[in-house]
Write a structure and sequence with these properties.
heterodimer, A: alpha/beta, four-stranded antiparallel beta sheet, 10 helices, B: mainly alpha, four-stranded mixed beta sheet
Chain lengths: ~300, ~400
Amino acid sequence: MPAIVVNQISKNFGSLKAVNDVSFDVEPGEIFGLLGPNGAGKTTIIRIILDIFKPDTGSVSILNGSMTEEKKNHIGYLPEERGLYQDIPLDRCLVYLATLKGMEEKVAQQKVESFLKRFDLADARKKKVKELSKGMQQKAQLITTLIHEPSLVIIDEPFSALDPVNTQMVKDLLRDERNKGTAVVMCTHQMHQVEELADRIVLINNGKAMLYGKLQDIQSQYKSQSVVVRPVTSLPAQINGVDEIVKQNHHYLLHLSHGATSQQVLKSLMDSGTDLEQFEIAIPSLDEIFIQVVKEVQPA
Amino acid sequence: MRKFWLVCWHEFKRHVLRKRFIFAILSMPLFVGVIGLVSFLSVWLQYDSTPIGYVDQFEILKTSQQLVKEPNELMGPVKILKYADESSAKTALENHEIQAYNVLSEDYLDTGEVTMVSEGKTGINIGDDFNDFLTLNLLNGKDPGAISRLSEGSNLIIRSLDGKRELNIENWSFILLPIIAGLLFVIAVNVSGGYLLQAVVEEKENRTMELLVTSVSPGELMAGKIVGNLAVGLFELLIWTVFTVIALNILPNFIPMGDPPDIPISYILLIIATFLPGFVMIAAAMGAIGATATEMKEAQQVAGFFTIPIVIPYWFITAIMFNPNGSIAVGMSLFPLTAPLALPMRAVFTTIPIWQLIVSISLLVLLAVFAVWLAGRVFRLGMLRYGKRIRLKEAFSKLPGGRA
């Protein structure tokens, strides 16, 4: 049973078509990427899913039906616009927000303690939220999202303000949630982060779903006829089966001739006596796929 | 319902545990105490207990009976010494045995002429003390009851034509009660309304709102905020009441204060019946303003439109006192924004017709309920709208996404 079913939703704000006939579903135990550039309509879709806005047309089923007050206790939400009470101690703020998710106060206090230790915030528990750094506030916000063990987690731009160490920690956390069977919706414009985590994605642009499906399938669909090589010394000027050689930072991108295969090119390089450190099929990044998709739909 | 109480308790704790709240709650009794102390000190510093003298060469006063100090009176009457002639009084003055002496003229009974001689500064009290001394001794031999009545004056009782309402001038604290209670109401309304305004605007500004509405229903959230902040205002009133009761129990040990006020229970019920819906009405309005405003400064400006009308009855206090059944007094006690102060004020001076009480309190309750309803609607409409105001027309039209 999908955790979320979004069925042909549309939403207008005045003359602006914020969401236009978008459909997708999210399964338990998967990380689902809701992607798109800034202003694409991602946050509006999330607000419709969370029943903050009603769609003009279409419907949403969340945790097997319409949104109810009880269901709010099973959803963890990290909004794009971060917000915690700035002038109260961190632990009090977290306990309050946890109790609003249906937890008993004593249980919430115990869980807050354990989460603060896990997130390396134990020493800051009595500090006012406004005294914490941006990264620490971001971690505190993540605690409010996960503390009540939700069965659905929706996180909007989860990696903003995080350093590489904390970014990795959040990635691990999200993988843990997936492994526990939680449905995770990750909404971001940082597509490279999604490539590492997401099982399936929907790519939104100007309120419309441009791509939807398994990440691997989409990448295969947009796979280019190129290989990436890094020679020990240099490449020959001419390589059989290669139309164009493009030098990039520390490697070369070889665009294959029509009908040529990567195996043929590798053999050709071996035959020419070129020693290689790296040889791999070039997989397009989501950024590249997005640019390609946008170009395809734009009128020439 | 559990979440309503959680929001309510959070709002209460959030303000009450703040240092600035504790300072604010203590500053009022402290301020009143300091004013009282300064007033007392200024009188005490001008008080001089050195005796005064008098010269009565024409034996106008048959006796020289001294004034008696009242129990608990800190600054009692000075001793008044008789001198045979002006030169002996002058010598006593030069020797600082007395601070001044009074000379009664031969025709004092006709003209009341008394000449006071002093070296300069005298105690603030000696004029009154000598007048009381003259009254006491001129009336000497008369009925003690008559002397006491003359010195204490009459006890004027004003009774309404139907005999249902009686105002005793000696019961002065009852007359002051609506003024003081109203003042506390205005302060508490402004404080709790201000906190509510601040809470909602802050949650919009720091973006906590979006997190909250995915945990609690907007209705529960708004109602919890209103009741929580109302409790802050009532808590403040309670603390001030406790301070007042303590002061009223301690002060009579030092200052004669007369009998304690005789306040009918029906009057206290009237105050509760007007203050409570008034409180809710203003609090809800503040919540709605907070939800529609884009920043605190703007919210405070708009909030003034609701808080200023509450104090209007103070501007017309004379009209209410002297003509409590006049059109101004009746109009203000029926208009919901002015009723919380005007109705209790009027009730001191007249018997308010039952129909007026019913209409006034019903209007207040209805408006309070309407304000809470409207606040919930506006809150839902404006909670996630940043940097854009909401027009009143929108509040009455459908909610975002077709919510009616």
